[in-house]
Amino acid sequence: MRARRFASLSAGAAAAVCVAALVVTDGAVAAPLPGGLGPCVGPACPTKYPPVNNKDYAGRDNGINVYVGGEFQVREAAAEAEGRVVVLGDFDMAKRAGASSVYNVGIAGVGSRVPPPDGADFLTTGGNVNVAADQRLLADGGVVRHAGTVTGTVTGKLEKDPDAAKPYVGLREDLRVASKCYAREGTTPRPATGTAVNQGYRTLFTGDGKSALQVFTVDFDLTGTTGGMQGIEFEGIPAGATILVNMVGAARTINTYTGDLNDQDPLNKLRERLLWNFPDAASVKIAGGAQFQGSVLIGEPGSTATVTASGMNGRFFTTGSLVHTSEATGGGGQEFHAYPFNGDLPECGSTPTTTPSSSTSSSSSSSSSSATTSSSPTSSSSTTTTSSSSTTTSATSTSPTSATSTSVTSTSTAPTSTSATSSSQTSTSSASSSSSSSATSSSPTSSSSTSSSSSSSTAPTTTSRTSTTTPGPGVTVTTTPGQPGGTAPGGGPSDSGPLASTGSEVRGLLVAGLFLLLAGGVLVALTIRSRRRES
């Protein structure tokens, strides 16, 4: 009798624990952004991100911080984009006269100070890189991997690669679908868990105080009554919850003074689990004198996003084009700062993952070079001036056709060939006044009259729902639903850590419930066996 009673109690307790676990998680399946985008990638990620600063590096992040499905334009007096930047179209820099003549990618003078690893692809473009005369694009310490031509002055290591953006093409459609899914379940708006009210001087978001995923639907601009800046405030948000703000409508503007440099503003505390989603807008503007907090997702491929906010603190993923600029009558120095998104979003299908491995990059005329001339005061790399698809530099202004030219031309390995190149992911440069670095090739046609060193570049490919690419030598492609992927070609580690927390830790409850259920089952079996013997 006692055994039977204990078995019943155990089974009941087990069922209660399992039900409690489901209630706590609100029945939702948590997932990251497509391709595992969002979290910091690599073994050098900081445990806690510091506020915006200009101190020593706090860690390294090989994840994509800015993704642009169209073109990326730098205008007026914008200053820099920290972290890895991927652009499927052209990167075009033409700042206004009188403004600072430089724009940084990869490493920023002021930001989270968690840049990509040395030798990673700081900027990847599927089109051309255009830099206006007398201006400089600085990618010191990293690689500018470009499919088209390079015009103007660019620092860092240049890699011509026709397939530069190929691993990231599928992300555009994945992000478009995800943006729509986050806002709607089919044609029905995703149920909101709270309210958003524009009160003129502020927009107040009020959550339900309990859901692990706080959803808000906003069909108005976050601006003052005359279009000026306003505050942004959240209340009723439980600790660890993810905040999803769906900014619906054909055109949306956020103009705010909320968010600071020192992480003292309450909104800063929500940064790494806050996503601003624009599923429909063909025009998006984010402005204001604040350090804007949270990550941004724009799902309309034909859209143009204009960013004039002083600082963007979070990931920025748009399927359309991006204009990083400043207001015509305002100050300059607009910056993208690299901060992760660690929130848990609704499950919207499987996410492709890519495991990079060392292989020779696929290109028809890959060349890269560096020199010690015209170095930026804050850089340790050199300035490279180009006007064509190959990169030619010289410390003594040597003509590319002269006997002392540092130009290197090589035929890189085709995607289907095999190569015994080194697995090094770090570019090698010489401290001498004239040196070059060439892509390792299976063809013995590369030549140079100066000292040279070779290195292999990493160019993995990925498979997504809308595009399929042929993996290069040594590249492993896997598809794992819901698992963050290290979509991070161009050097550096590929691991992105575990799936972000759902905001409610339930594994302990589930383990306890399973144990009690098994114990109850064993006791029931023993009771039945005992009664059979008695009879």
Radius of gyration using CA atoms only: 26 Å
Shape: globular
Spans of at least 5 consecutive residues whose pLDDT stays below 50 are 14-29, 350-510
Which sheet architecture does the biggest sheet show? 15 strands, mixed
Terminus-to-terminus distance: 15 Å
What share of the residues lie within helices? 10-25%
Query: What multimeric state do the chains show?
Result: single chain
Name the structural class: alpha/beta
What portion of the residues fall into strands of 2 or more residues?
Answer: 25-35%
Task: Give a written overview of the molecule.
It comes from Amycolatopsis roodepoortensis. InterPro entries: Choice_anch_A. Keywords: Membrane, Signal, Transmembrane, Transmembrane helix. The two termini are 15 Å apart. Helix 1 packs antiparallel against helix 3. It is globular and about 100 Å long. It is built from three helices and 37 strands. The strands form seven sheets. It has a 15-stranded mixed β-sheet that branches. The protein has a ten-stranded parallel β-sheet with strand order 13-11-8-5-2-28-25-22-20-18, covered by helices on one side. Strand 14 and strand 15 form a beta hairpin. The chain is of the alpha/beta class and 535 residues long.
